[in-house]
Write a structure and sequence with these properties.
By secondary structure, the protein is α+β, with helices and mostly antiparallel strands. It is 33% helix and 16% strand.
């Protein structure tokens, strides 16, 4: 059932405040907003997934869905920029690159190793953007591998 942001946030806050409400609830279920990963991990061609993204955006009256919790080699747009994956594994456990997304008005940028790069929030110019990230993060082997496989 569709819920508003306010309803979802209320349920999450209640579950975080009361350990008895966590097990099997919105905070721990793999289909909940904290653990659902298909927007980043499933192929964009998966039947029904693009329509699901469009429905989420419409229901929440949003233009983009910014998602973490699934480590990627760089901040990337998916579904034509409707979904933006931002988890690059910054923690010491993952040793990911120092990289973050900024949104200022209608300008989307990624700051990677101190360099501000234009981010293709419309999903276009993806290869050029990833090459620019690799230029400032040349030790990013996972990104290098992604670029090699996507440009063949």
């Amino acid at each position: 059932a569709a819920s508003t942001r306010e309803e979802i946030n209320k349920k999450i806050h209640e579950a975080l405040d009361d350990a008895g409400k966590r097990a099997g609830g919105i905070v721990t279920t793999e289909e909940g907003p904290l653990w659902y990963r298909d927007l980043l991990t499933a192929p964009e061609s998966q039947p029904g997934l693009a329509a699901h993204v469009d429905q989420l955006l419409k229901t929440q009256q949003a233009q983009h869905i910014v998602v973490g919790h699934s480590v990627l080699p760089a901040i990337v747009p998916r579904f034509g920029g409707k979904v933006i994956g931002i988890d690059v594994g910054l923690s010491s456990f993952f040793k990911g690159p120092p990289e973050f997304l900024t949104i200022e008005g209608s300008r989307f940028s990624v700051v990677c190793r101190g360099h501000r790069l234009d981010f293709p929030a419309d999903g276009g110019a993806l290869v050029q953007y990833l090459r620019a990230v690799l230029d400032v993060d040349s030790e990013n082997g996972a990104l290098r591998k992604l670029l090699q496989t996507s440009t063949r």
